[in-house]
Amino acid sequence: MKHAAGSASKGGDDGGSRAVGQRSSADPAVVHPLLPVRLGGCPKTVLADGTPAPLDIAYAYEDVAAGELFGRPAEHGLERWAPLLPPLAAPGLGEGNTPLVRLDDGTWIKDESRNPTWSHKDRLNRVTVSAALLSGAPGIVVSSSGNHGASAAAYAARAGLRCAVFSSPDAPPAVASFLRAYGATVLTVAPREAVWPLVRRISDELGYQPVGNFTPDSHTGHPFGPEGYKTIAYEVFLELGEVPSDVYVPTGYGELLFGVWKGFHELELLGLVGRVPRIHSCEPAAGAPLATALRTGRPTAKVPVGESDAYAIDCAVSGYRGVIAVRESGGAAHVLTDDQMAAAQVELAGQGLWCELSSVAGLAAQRSSGQAGADDGPVVCIVTSSGFKDIATASRDTRHPPMPADWETVRAALG
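Now predict its structure.
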């Protein structure tokens, strides 16, 4: 398979991908070849604050038929959406096709904890590991103490690539177990600032391709990453049969936020829907750089970060792609306390969904906004990860001493 950059895939054919290159978010007319992957953003366009404009993937939309996109078998794996994805060179693990669960009040939960490594990151890593294979990289490298690292390790193992993960000393035990089980090299480094030059050195000297962000003072992100996330929008539309009025998204660097917006925007470009839902960013109050950027009219922001148990989305820097998603959709930025997220976590557990604290930020924002429904469509909250990924899960004392084996004690325990 030959693509726009002229390099051959090592993982199979492209599944009919219509990807044509890497496009600047600041000027869509600027399109670079699909390879090499430009991890530092666009070299030709910069934002108002001087940071490189992030890139995403451009497609020949005129060559994509709606029947081709939605007429494929409903199976697990991103292959179903191959025409609007970069070439899927890496083998999959059955990611995607996650359930949409309706709560008692009519709110819909898109439960991404049902992915192979229990988080939404599997969609991203299917395409970023594919990029590494297409590039001929011997391995991948990522800085992550959570879902991203666990998922990257799994997809690297599946693709036969080496994987180096820079993790923090306080990473959740479940994540550390994932990393070691998949054979990743775990590099526990502190402080976080020390990681970036090491990631670059591994990339430059060993040829490993980063599958996350490559710019420490802002977030340009991997150009291929949000392409995996946009399949969430396709699935939501397909199952609901209509466009939601609002979608609430747990937000760290904003890649998931942008991917969901882009997916609905593409459905609009293809003439399948008449509008894009309002996309809401949902951040912990301990940081909230995207809310800061939107409030101040800046393309990106860097903020001090306080303590929060929502470690997976407690970020110091934001990315411009998140600004695009909220601004272009007419959505809003929500800032949440840990208590608000904890209440949403308890609510979902009471309905059979045990989710990581960070991952319920969307529902917490929707509840705090008082929006139980809308006249122009259903409301969807994305849940990103399983409760097994929480730091607090391992620290809680879940051991109980044995009780007397008599009926009166058991009946009292049952209330």
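The chain has 14 helices and 13 strands.
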